[in-house]
Structures are given as C-alpha cells and as structure tokens.
Write a structure and sequence with these properties.
Layout lengths: L10 E2 L3 H5 L1 H12 L2 E6 L3 E6 L2 H9 L4 E2 L18 H4 L10 H16 L3 H19 L4 E3 L1 H5 L2 H10 L6 H12 L5 H21 L5 H7 L6 H32 L1 H4 L6 H14 L6 E6 L3 E3 L2 E3 L4 E4 L1 H5 L32 H19 L4 E2 L21 E3 L10
Parallel strand pairs: 1-2, 3-9
Antiparallel strand pairs: 2-3, 4-6, 5-11, 6-9, 7-8, 10-11
Helix pairs in contact: 5-11, 6-8, 6-16, 8-12, 9-10, 9-12, 10-12, 12-14, 12-16, 14-16
The chain binds protoporphyrin IX containing FE (HEM).
Length: 409
C-alpha cells in the first residue's frame, strides 16, 4: 500500500445518481479512486467507502486499527443532533459499539444463546407464520409481497425464540418496524422496545424458559440486565431488516429472471440458488456505517487520519472484479460473499443460519401455495428504497389464481 499524496474529489453517497444506479456508481468510483473511495454522506459529512474486497477483509480483520466505537470520530463537531444517520453512529452501550475483551464477552454470550435455538422448531414456526400471512391475501388473487409477506415474516418467526408473550407481539413488531424506518416516531418507538425488553427480562428472571433472554440471563459471562436489554434490541432489529430484504430481493429475482421462472413450481433447488445469488448481486445490507480509525494509517493508497469514519462497502466488495472477474460463471456454490460481514463484528454465528431457515422457508412456502404467481407490473417499474445502507424494494405487486386458506386459523 503506497501513499499517493493525491487528494481526489469525494463522491456523494446520496441524491439521484446514487439512488438510480448504485452499481454503476461503485464501478465508476473504483475506476476513479481505487479500492478506498473518499465520499460525502448526507450533509456532506466525509467518510471513506471501502469497495475493494481485499481491503475490506483487511479492515474487518483489524479491529484494533479500525474500531467500532464511534466516539473516536473526528467529525462529531459537524454532526447536527437530527442528522439522518444518527441512529447508526450515536454511541450506545450495546454489542455493536463495544471492543476488545468486552466485545468478546458480549458476542460469546450472544452466539451461545443463538446456538441453542432449535432450528427445526424455528422452521415449523416459520411455516405457520408464512401460511397465516398467505391466508390473509390468498383469496384476493393479488398482493404486495413486501408489505404483506417479506416485511412481517422475520420478526413474527422469531417471537418464539425471544419468548415474547403473544399479546405483546403485534405492538413490538410495529415498534421495531418504526425504529428501522428511521422517522420522527423512531426515538419514542425505540424507548418502547427497550421498556418491553426490560419487562421481558424481569419476567424471565422469575420464570426462565427455553428462549434467548433466559439463556443470556443464565450465561456464565454474567451480563447485566442493562447489557441484555441493549443486545436484545440489537438482535431484534439486526435479525429483522436484512432478513426481510433477503426474502424480498430473492422473490424479485425469481419473479423477474427466466432462469428461475422456468422452474418456479418445482424449484426447490432453485430457491437456494436464488438466495445465494441475491447475496452476491443484491446484498440486503449494502453498506454498514462503520469503523473509526484508531490512529493515522494508509489503506488502498489513501491516507487515513485517526478518527476518520469508514463505511463498510459490502455490496461493492462483492462486485470487486478481483473476486468477480468478467469471466465469472455465476454464484452457484460460492459462498465467499461479504454480505454477512467478516471478523469480530461480523454477523455472529449462527445468526446467518437462522436467517437462512427463515428466508428459505418463506420462499418455499410461497411458491408451494401460489405456483402460478406473476408480477402485476413490468419488472422495470419496480422501485428500490432510497437508502445507502440497504437494498430493498418499496413494493412487489403480484397476481395469482385465488387460493384456499391453509394456516392454523
Ligand atoms: C439476511 C440476514 C442477515 C444479514 C445479511 C446480516 C448481515 C450482517 C452484517 C453485514 C453484520 C456486520 C456489520 C458490520 O460489520 O458493520 C451483522 C452483524 C450482526 N448481525 Fe446480522 N445479518 C443477518 C441476519 C441476522 C440475524 C437473523 C440476527 C440475529 C437473530 C443477526 C444479528 C446480528 C448481530 C447481533 C450483529 C452484530 C455483531 C457484532 O457487532 O458483534 N443478524 N449482520
């Protein structure tokens, strides 16, 4: 890595050019600036976007140099309190912002708790949820698969593993969705989710069950109630948003790409192929904000100052010609994408497996129930949500022959 002493013009990570064709923009960025790109976020706040696969692995494998604690940011004096991305950078004492031994203690407990989830039970819960969501629209012959299917699917599938009381579930699902949509009601909704998690922990202390909060309470890491509350909120939102987008983007691929359409009704294997292809082509989490340099360093030919912000360019790294040359023959069997992150702060084992159980079951049950489903608008009219963090459609309208109820009622 050499220091070029070159100060290139930064690229805006917002506005029409970014929304319309981020892939083309990533390609142009790489050509102009190489693997580490100076960018401007909303309000022209500077950051480095890491688009090189090799450089991204280096950043994520060196948490002492590129830390997760946002308090070391050297641009805090320029950030207004109502900055649109504040929810992702404002320090909170959750697993997300902890580092070193403290992070290992928290992450170890989360992974142990997640490993105890019975994946057969989860699958059967997913089937029930999928069936009852489909029952709600199957008689109409049309549906929006984003609002009516992929969005509600993950949280409803995860309520049993959280041991949430059934009566509280709709409120919590609505509040977590409000938090994730980042709007004027997000802060209040966030407070309500935290309160609900506090009540849940108090209840599980009294009466432990086979669920995540009880396992975290009993874990030898000795987590405090406050730590468990913080990390349960991270689990709820971290599990919901990318898994919903994974389902939505996979359904879009299967409905718009002939390779999948021909096997739509009998396509068990093609559902897994579509899920994997989406991880390479339409990564549900496009960019993650972020990491903060612990001291001056160099990366991909750029001079990084202590306290500079780095954006983790998951989607751009997946498209790096170093790992995806023009001769690339498709994603089948290749799971080396960066869409679950990498290193200490990557998606904790076995969360990706749980996400796959939810997403695969969602796709499979839908194809089983509505085998003649097709898009009700031309594919080029589908609209992506305006966000640099995630890749998600606003709607996915479909039509099908009206079917029969099948869920548990
Ligand atoms: C398609 C589904 C999912 C995708 C694409 C995904 C992706 C990611 C990525 C890229 C990161 C790392 C972000 C960074 O390095 O800045 C991450 C972290 C995390 N994910 Fe996931 N995730 C998914 C599902 C889940 C699920 C189902 C759960 C839990 C039930 C979960 C829990 C977490 C947690 C707790 C972290 C933070 C880890 C840490 O900071 O130590 N994720 N995920």
């Amino acid at each position: 890595m050499t220091d070029t002493h070159y100060t290139p013009e930064p690229i805006r990570m917002y506005g029409p050019q970014f929304q319309e064709d981020p892939e083309q923009l990533y390609r142009d960025m790489r050509k102009l600036h190489g693997p580490v790109v100076p960018v401007l976020m909303e309000g022209d706040i500077p950051a480095w976007l890491v688009v090189g696969y090799r450089e991204l692995r280096y950043v994520l494998s060196n948490p002492q140099l590129f830390g997760r604690d946002s308090r070391r940011w050297n641009a805090w004096d320029r950030i207004p309190p109502d900055w649109p991305l504040m929810a992702f950078v404002g320090y909170q004492p959750s697993i997300l912002f902890t580092e070193g031994a403290e992070h290992q203690r928290r992450a170890g407990a989360l992974s142990d708790a997640l490993a105890s989830v019975d994946q057969f039970e989860l699958r059967s819960q997913c089937e029930k949820v999928a069936d009852s969501l489909i029952d709600a629209f199957t008689g109409h012959g049309r549906a929006d698969l984003i609002a009516q299917y992929s969005q509600p699917m993950p949280l409803l599938s995860m309520v049993t593993m959280f041991g949430l009381p059934e009566a509280e579930t709709p409120r919590i699902v609505a509040d977590v969705t409000m938090v994730l949509n980042v709007g004027p009601e997000s802060a209040e909704a966030y407070g309500r989710v935290q309160n609900a998690m506090q009540r849940l922990i108090a209840a599980k202390r009294e009466r432990p069950g086979p669920d995540l909060p009880s396992r975290l309470l009993a874990h030898p890491a000795g987590l405090s109630d406050e730590e468990i509350v913080q990390d349960l909120v991270v689990l709820l939102s971290g599990g919901q948003e990318p898994t919903a987008n994974w389902i939505g983007n996979t359904l879009r691929l299967m409905l718009t790409d002939e390779r999948f359409a021909v096997t739509l009704s009998g396509g068990r294997r093609s559902a897994s192929q579509a899920l994997n292809e989406v991880m390479w082509e339409d990564s549900p989490a496009q960019n993650s904000l972020g990491r903060w340099a612990a001291h001056d360093t160099q990366l991909g030919g750029q001079r990084i100052r202590a306290g500079d912000a780095l954006i983790i360019g998951l989607a751009a790294a997946n498209a790096d010609p170093q790992v995806r040359p023009d001769s690339y023959g498709g994603s089948a069997g290749n799971h080396a994408h960066m869409s679950f992150g990498h290193g200490e702060h990557g998606c904790p084992h076995p969360a990706p497996e749980l996400a796959e159980v939810i997403a695969y079951t969602a796709v499979e049950v839908l194809l089983d129930r509505l085998p003649d489903m097709g898009l009700s608008v031309p594919a080029d009219q589908l609209v992506w949500r305006p966000s640099f963090r995630l890749r998600a459609l606003t709607t996915l309208p479909v039509e099908f022959t009206p079917g029969y109820l099948r869920g548990p009622g």
